[in-house]
TrEMBL record:
GO biological process: transcription initiation at RNA polymerase II promoter
Chief place of localization: nucleus
Keywords, in A-Z order: Nucleus, Transcription, Transcription regulation
Subcellular locations according to the entry: Nucleus
GO CC annotations on file: transcription factor TFIID complex
MF terms (GO), sorted A to Z: chromatin binding; RNA polymerase II general transcription initiation factor activity; transcription cis-regulatory region binding
Segments forming domain Transcription initiation factor TFIID subunit 2 Ig-like: 530-659
Recorded family membership: Belongs to the TAF2 family.
Residues of the Transcription initiation factor TFIID subunit 2 TPR repeats domain: 662-1017
Official protein name in the record: Transcription initiation factor TFIID subunit 2
Bias kind Acidic residues: ranges: 1115-1135
Length: 1146
C-alpha cells in the first residue's frame, strides 16, 4: 500500500520491558526491542517516534538466517529532534494563530511515521549494509527512561498522612489520544504498522500490571520485593492501541465471555460498585457476537477503572481503561444508563478500532463510525426503539448545529491535500490527530456513526452485518506464523490489508459481496463536508386533488463574523429526499429528486374526499387510529400532516411549513418520537401560541402512553406559551397533580421511582415550572414555594432507588427561579434579603450541610448548590465573592465539585472582568503541570464557552501579558498534550482571531500606506512555508542533537498584519454571536476522583453566606455597571448562546 511503501521496512514484533517504576518520582525505566524486516536492499537508516523519554543507548543486530549468516550486534549512534517542542522560535515576534497553525502542521508532518519520519534518526553502520541487502531481519534495542511525564503516562499518587505516597491507592495509566504511545515508549507510532507484542512489566509485589494480550506468567524477582507480569499479544496491533495500567487494584474475575477470560480491576474501596457496574457487560458482548457473527478476537478482556482518568473510556487491544466515575450501585438510576452506553462503546471498539484498524488517519471515520453504530444498535436493544430514534435525532442535531455555527466536518480529508482546499473547510489541519481540536473530534465521531447508519439504510441492516462479519472473518484467518517469516527485499506481508480499513477497501468489499457500488454515498457524505438544510412547504389544489410540494436546500444565515461552517461557502445537497404524507387513507411515501435549486412536485392525494366517514386511520408504524379528532383542520382537506425524511436517511436539518392544526395532529397521533419532538419545538413559535396548541400539548403531557421524552418536551413547550396566554394557573394545577399535590403547600407522597419513565418526568417537571414567568419577567411566587416544599418534605425512606439526582434537579429548579435584584447591597445583605430568597438560601445551605454528613452520589447536590450561590451573586442578592469557589476548586475535593466551582469562577470573570480571578485560574489550573489533565482541559473548555472577552469587544482583560501567557502554552509548554494544545488554540482564536492580537504592538519595519478610503492598510504578504525535510541519504541532514523547528521556514514576521486595519479582512473561523442556546447537559464535567469523597477543603456550609460577606471587598459603581448586575439583566451570555437559565432540549 501507499503508506507501507513510504516506510522501507515492516515491524514484525516489538518487546516492551519496564524494569522499574517509581510513584514517588513518577518515573519508569526500561527498554524496548523492535524486530524489523527490510523491504529494500538500500535501507540505510531507521526513524522512530519518541517524545519526553531519555534515550540512553540504541543497539542494532542482524539475526542469523538459514544460510548460515551469524548474528551481528553493535551500538549505534543516533540523533534526536522534536520540532513540536517549540513550534515558533523564541526570536519570532509573531503572535498570530494562522502562522502558528501552519507551522504546527509542518512540525507534526516532519515527524509523521507514515511519511517515514520520526523524532529519532538511527543511521545503519556500514558493517550492517550487506546483511540488510540480503533481507535479514534487524533488531533494534532502545534503553530509555521517562521521568515526570507531562502527558501520555499519568500517575495518580495520593499522599498519606506522613506526606509520602500512599501505595495502597497509587496507580498509573496511559492515554490513547493523538498517537500518544510515543510519549512513553520509543516506537513506530503509526496506525498502519502492525506487529505482535510482548510486554514485561515489573511492579512492587502488592501491585498489579494490566497490559494487552494474554497473561503468560507472573514471576517474582530474586529479592521477592517485586514481580514481573509477562503478556503476549498474538494479534497484529499498532502502537497507538498499546497501553497499560499499574496499581494496587482489586481484582474481580467475571464469568467467561465466549471462551475469553474476563477480569475487572478497580481501586480497593470501590470493588462493590464495580461488581454491579460490569454485571451487564457479558450481555453486551453476546449481542455484538450475535450481530457480527464472530467471537471476541482476543483471548482475554481486561477492564480497569482508574482515578483521574484522561477520558471517560479508552480502548486498547484487549484492555479497556475507564474512569471510576462510571461506577455506581444498584440504587443509582441516572448513572446506570450513561455507564452502560460508555462501556458498550468501549467494547465495540475492541472489534473495530483495536482489532480492525485504519490504514491512515483519513480513514479514521470507518472504525469510529462502525463501533459507534453497533453500540447504538445495542442501545436500541436495551433501551428500545424510541430511545434509539431519539438518540439518532440528537446526534444529527448536534452535527448540523456544529457545522452551521463552527466548522463543516470532513470525514475523509485525503482529497483535500492542498492547504488551500483544506483551509476552506477548517483553519486547522485534518491530516493528523495531533492537530484536531477535541470538540471537532467529538462531532467527527457522531457524523461517522451517522454515515455508517446511512450505509446500513441503503444496503439493508442484514447486508451491512454480513459485510462487517466478512471484515473480521478475513482478519481472523490470519496465521500468526506468517509474521515471523523473513521476506525477500521488495515484497510485503500479504496479511496486513485484512487488518487495515480504508474507504476504497470497504467499497471494493461491498461491491464484491453485494454487487452494489456505494461510491455515490461516500462522495456525498465522506469526501465532502456539510449537511443538508431542507425547507419544505406545500399548497393543496383542491380541484385537482393534488399537493404542490416544494423542498429547498437553504444555506444557513451567515452569522456575524462567520462561524467557519455556514454562509454561502456551504455546498447544497443534491439527491433523493423522501416525503411522507399522512392522509386519511394512510401514510404515503414519495421520493423527490432535489437538484441545485429546489424540488417542486405535484403529488396526488390518495384520499378522495373527507365526506366518506372513516372510523380508522392507518399510521406509519402500522397502528390504527380510532375516529381521530381532526380539530380545526379544513373540512375538505384530506392531508393530516407532512414529514420530510421520516426515516432519517440523510444528515439534515429540516424545517417544515405547515398549518397549526397539522402540527397538533402530528403531535397527538404520530408515533415517531423524533417527529413529535420536532412538533413540540415548532409549536413554541409565537405564531402558534393559541389555546388549541396549549390543549394539544396538555393532552400529551397527561397521556401516560406517550414516550416520556415527548411528555418532557411538551412540558417545556407549555411553559413557553402559557405566560403569553395567561394560563399559568391551570398549568400549575396540572403539574401539581403529577406530584399528587392539591396546592403548592401540600405535602407530597413519599418517593417511589419504581416506574422509571415517571421518575424522569417528575425530575423534569420542576425544571419546567422554573421557566414560568409573568408579564413582568418574574417567576410566580407559587413556583419556588412549591419546589421548596418538595425539598423540605422529601421522603425517600421507602424508595428502592436513591434520590440524589432528584434533589439535585429540585435545587437546579430553584436556581432558575431567581430573578435579578432591584438593588445591589454589599453590607448587611442577609437582613435585606427578600423572604423568598432568604428561604431559598436557607434551604440550599441546609443541603450543603447534609452533604458533609451524607454525601450524595458524585456530589451532585453540592454541584447544584454552588450554582445557586453563583446565581445569587450574579443577580445581586449576595456579594460577588469567589473565595468560596476557590476553596471548593482546590485539589482534594471531588472532581465534579471542583469543576462546578471553576465554572462559577469563569462566569465571574466574564461578568466582573476580574483580572485577579483570571490570573488565579490560569496559575492554579491551566498553566499548572501538576494539575489533572482532564481538569486542565475542562477549564479551557469553560473559558471557551464563557470567554472573558471577544476580540470585537475588547476590555480590561485584553492585555499583552495574557497574549504572552497563552502563546507560551501553545508554543512550548503543551508540546506533549496535543488535546490541551488544540483546546488552547481554540480559545486563543476566540479571543484574538487568526491574526495579530490588537493589544500587541506592530512589529518593526512595517510599511503603512494611506489609501483613498481614508483608512490605513498594511500590505500583507503571506508566509511561504518550507516543505518538510526531504528524506535524503545524509544521516544528519535534517536532524540535530538540539534545536526545534527543523525545516519549518523563516520566522515570517512580514506576514503579521493588523486585521483591524486590513480592509475587507474577515475571519473564516469565528463563533456566531447569535448562536442558538447550548444545552447545559452538553457540558457536564466528567468526574475523575474516587467516590464518595466528602469535601475536605471547603468551608463549613452554614458559614457560606457569612464568609462571603466578610471576605468581599466593596464593589465600585463601575464594576457593578459593567459586571454582574448588567449581566443578569441582559440576555445572559448571549454571545455563545450559553445561559445559566437556558431551556434544555430533552
Amino acid at each position: 500500500s501507499k503508506m507501507q511503501s513510504a516506510r522501507p521496512y515492516n515491524l514484525c514484533q516489538q518487546t516492551v520491558c519496564i524494569k522499574s517504576i517509581s510513584f514517588r518520582t513518577k518515573s519508569i525505566v526500561g527498554y524496548t526491542e523492535l524486530l524489523l524486516q527490510p523491504l529494500t536492499p538500500q535501507l540505510r537508516k531507521v526513524k522512530l517516534n519518541c517524545k519526553q523519554c531519555t534515550v540512553y543507548s540504541i543497539w542494532l543486530e542482524t539475526l542469523p538466517d538459514s544460510r548460515g549468516h551469524q548474528q551481528t550486534a553493535m551500538e549505534a549512534s543516533f540523533a534526536f529532534n522534536d520540532p513540536t517542542m517549540e513550534i515558533c522560535r523564541a526570536e519570532m515576534k509573531q503572535r498570530n494563530l494562522a502562522f502558528f497553525e501552519q507551522r504546527h502542521e509542518l512540525a507534526v508532518g516532519s515527524v509523521d511515521p507514515d511519511s517515514n519520519n520520526g523524532e529519532i534518526l538511527v543511521p545503519l553502520p556500514q558493517d550492517l549494509w550487506p546483511a540488510v541487502s540480503q533481507g535479514r531481519q534487524l533488531r533494534i534495542t532502545v534503553e530509555f527512561s521517562l521521568q515526570q511525564p507531562q502527558a501520555g503516562l499519568y500517575f495518580c499518587s495520593p499522599l498519606g498522612e506522613d506526606g509520602e505516597v500512599d501505595m495502597r491507592s497509587a496507580h498509573c495509566f496511559t492515554s490513547a489520544t493523538g498517537n500518544s504511545t510515543r510519549l512513553w515508549l520509543p516506537c513506530i507510532d503509526s496506525c498502519s504498522e502492525l506487529c505482535q507484542w510482548r510486554l514485561e512489566i515489573t511492579v512492587p509485589e502488592d501491585m498489579v500490571a494490566v497490559a494487552p494480550g494474554d497473561l503468560l506468567e507472573t514471576v517474582y524477582t530474586q529479592d521477592l520485593q517485586s514481580k514481573t507480569y509477562r503478556y503476549f499479544l498474538a494479534q497484529p496491533t499498532c502502537a497507538p492501541n498499546i497501553g497499560f495500567a499499574i496499581g494496587a487494584f482489586e481484582l474481580e474475575t467475571g464469568p467467561p465471555l465466549s471462551g475469553a477470560t474476563a477480569s475487572y480491576f478497580c481501586p480497593p474501596p470501590l470493588a462493590s460498585l464495580m461488581k454491579h457496574t460490569v454485571s451487564r457487560l457479558p450481555d453486551c458482548l453476546a449481542f455484538y457476537e450475535s450481530l457480527l457473527g464472530v467471537r471476541l478476537p482476543y483471548g482475554s478482556l481486561k477492564l480497569v477503572f482508574v482515578d483521574q482518568a484522561y477520558e471517560t473510556v479508552q480502548s486498547y487491544a484487549s484492555v479497556i481503561l475507564a474512569s471510576v466515575s462510571l461506577l455506581h450501585s444498584a440504587r443509582i438510576v441516572d448513572q446506570a444508563i450513561e455507564s452502560r452506553r460508555a462501556l458498550a462503546l468501549a467494547l465495540a471498539q475492541q472489534f473495530f478500532g483495536c482489532y480492525i484498524g485504519m490504514q491512515t488517519f483519513s480513514d479514521a471515520w470507518l472504525p469510529q463510525g462502525i463501533s459507534g453504530h453497533i453500540a447504538a444498535l445495542y442501545q436500541r436493544k436495551v433501551f428500545g426503539h424510541n430511545e434509539y430514534r431519539n438518540y439518532i435525532s440528537d446526534q444529527m442535531s448536534q452535527v448540523c448545529h456544529y457545522e452551521s455555527t463552527r466548522h463543516e466536518v470532513l470525514l475523509d480529508p485525503s482529497g483535500a491535500a492542498g492547504p488551500d482546499k483544506q483551509s476552506a473547510v477548517t483553519p486547522f489541519c485534518l491530516r493528523f490527530p495531533q492537530t484536531v481540536p477535541p470538540d471537532y473530534a467529538a462531532i467527527y465521531r457522531s457524523k461517522a456513526m451517522l454515515v455508517i447508519r446511512l450505509l446500513g439504510c441503503k444496503l439493508g441492516e442484514e447486508v451491512l452485518q454480513y459485510v462487517l462479519n466478512k471484515l473480521i472473518t478475513l482478519a481472523s484467518s490470519y496465521d500468526p506464523s506468517l509474521q515471523q517469516q523473513p521476506l525477500q527485499p521488495g515484497t510485503e506481508q500479504s496479511w496486513r490489508p485484512a487488518f487495515l480499513l480504508s474507504s476504497q477497501a470497504l467499497l471494493d468489499l461491498i461491491l464484491a459481496l453485494t454487487g452494489k457500488n456505494m461510491q455515490y454515498l461516500l462522495d456525498q457524505w465522506v469526501t465532502q463536508p456539510g449537511h443538508a438544510r431542507l425547507r419544505a412547504s406545500f399548497s393543496i389544489n383542491k380541484k385537482r386533488n393534488l399537493i404542490a410540494l416544494e423542498i429547498r436546500d437553504d444555506p444557513p444565515v451567515a452569522a456575524s463574523g462567520g462561524g467557519g461552517g455556514g454562509g454561502g461557502r456551504r455546498r447544497r445537497y443534491t439527491g433523493a429526499v423522501a416525503v411522507s404524507l399522512q392522509e386519511l387513507d394512510g401514510p404515503f411515501t414519495h421520493t423527490l429528486k432535489l437538484d441545485e435549486s429546489a424540488a417542486v412536485s405535484d403529488l396526488p392525494c390518495h384520499t378522495k374526499s373527507r365526506k366518506i366517514k372513516r372510523r380508522k386511520v392507518l399510521l406509519s408504524n402500522g397502528d390504527e387510529l380510532e375516529d381521530p379528532d381532526l380539530g380545526k383542520l379544513e373540512s375538505d382537506c384530506s392531508l393530516l400532516w407532512l414529514r420530510v425524511d421520516p426515516e432519517m436517511q440523510l444528515i439534515r436539518h429540516v424545517e417544515i411549513v405547515q398549518p397549526e392544526p397539522m402540527w397538533h395532529l402530528l403531535l397527538r397521533y404520530e408515533r415517531c418520537v423524533a417527529s413529535q419532538m420536532a412538533a413540540c419545538r415548532a409549536l413554541c413559535q409565537p405564531c402558534f401560541h393559541s389555546r388549541e396548541t396549549w390543549q394539544a400539548l396538555m393532552e400529551v403531557v397527561r397521556d401516560e402512553r406517550q414516550y416520556y421524552r415527548v411528555r418532557m418536551q411538551a412540558c417545556y413547550a407549555l411553559c413557553m406559551i402559557s405566560g403569553p396566554l395567561d394560563l399559568l394557573e391551570p398549568l400549575m394545577a396540572v403539574f401539581l397533580s403529577l406530584f399528587g399535590a392539591k396546592d403548592t403547600r401540600s405535602v407530597t407522597p413519599a418517593n417511589d421511582f419504581s416506574n422509571l419513565q415517571r421518575y424522569f418526568l417528575l425530575k423534569e417537571v420542576p425544571l419546567c415550572m422554573s421557566l414560568l414567568h409573568t408579564a413582568q419577567g418574574v417567576c410566580p411566587p407559587e413556583v419556588p414555594e412549591f419546589i421548596l416544599n418538595l425539598l423540605r418534605f422529601n421522603d425517600n425512606s421507602k424508595n428502592i432507588y436513591a434520590d440524589d439526582y432528584y434533589r439535585a434537579a429540585l435545587i437546579e429548579s430553584l436556581f432558575r427561579t431567581v430573578s435579578p435584584a432591584a438593588t445591589v447591597t454589599t453590607e448587611n445583605f442577609l437582613a435585606k434579603l427578600p423572604k423568598p430568597i432568604a428561604a431559598l438560601l436557607e434551604e440550599v445551605t441546609r443541603h450543603m450541610n447534609l452533604e458533609k454528613l451524607m454525601p450524595s452520589y458524585r456530589m451532585v447536590v453540592t454541584v447544584k448548590c454552588l450554582r445557586v450561590f453563583r446565581k445569587l451573586q450574579r443577580t445581586g442578592y449576595i456579594p460577588a465573592d469567589i473565595g468560596i469557589f476557590k476553596s471548593y476548586a482546590a485539589p482534594g475535593n471531588y472532581i465534579d465539585v471542583r469543576l462546578a466551582a471553576m465554572e462559577a469562577v469563569v462566569n465571574h470573570i466574564k461578568c466582573a472582568k476580574d483580572a485577579a480571578a483570571l490570573a488565579w485560574l490560569l496559575d492554579s489550573t491551566v498553566c499548572n503541570p501538576a494539575e489533572e489533565a482532564s481538569v486542565r482541559h475542562q477549564a479551557v473548555a469553560m473559558l471557551t464557552i464563557q470567554p472573558p472577552f471577544l476580540r470585537r469587544k475588547r476590555g480590561q482583560l485584553d492585555t499583552p501579558e495574557l497574549v504572552e501567557r497563552l502563546w507560551r502554552l501553545l508554543n512550548t509548554e503543551l508540546s506533549a498534550d496535543c488535546r490541551l494544545r488544540c483546546s488552547v488554540a481554540s480559545l486563543y482564536h476566540l479571543l484574538y482571531g487568526r491574526h495579530r492580537p490588537k493589544c500587541t504592538p506592530l512589529p518593526e519595519n512595517f510599511l503603512v500606506l494611506n489609501v483613498r478610503e481614508g483608512r490605513t492598510k498594511i500590505a500583507q504578504r503571506a508566509p511561504t512555508p518550507t516543505p518538510a525535510p526531504a528524506d535524503t541519504d545524509d544521516d544528519n541532514a535534517n536532524f540535530g542533537l538540539t534545536g526545534a523547528g527543523v525545516g519549518l521556514g523563516s520566522s515570517g514576521d512580514e506576514a503579521d498584519v493588523d486585521d483591524d486595519l486590513d480592509i475587507g479582512l474577515e475571519d473564516d473561523y469565528e463563533f456566531a454571536p447569535d448562536e442558538p442556546p447550548i444545552d447545559e447537559a452538553d457540558f457536564v464535567w466528567p468526574p475523575d476522583s474516587s467516590f464518595p469523597a466528602a469535601d475536605a477543603a471547603a468551608p463549613a456550609a452554614p458559614a457560606v453566606a457569612a464568609a462571603a460577606a466578610a471576605a468581599t471587598p466593596a464593589l465600585d459603581e463601575e464594576m457593578l455597571d459593567d459586571g454582574d448586575r448588567d449581566a443578569a439583566e441582559d440576555d445572559e451570555d448571549e454571545i455563545f448562546g450559553y445561559s445559566w437559565d437556558n431551556l434544555p432540549d430533552c
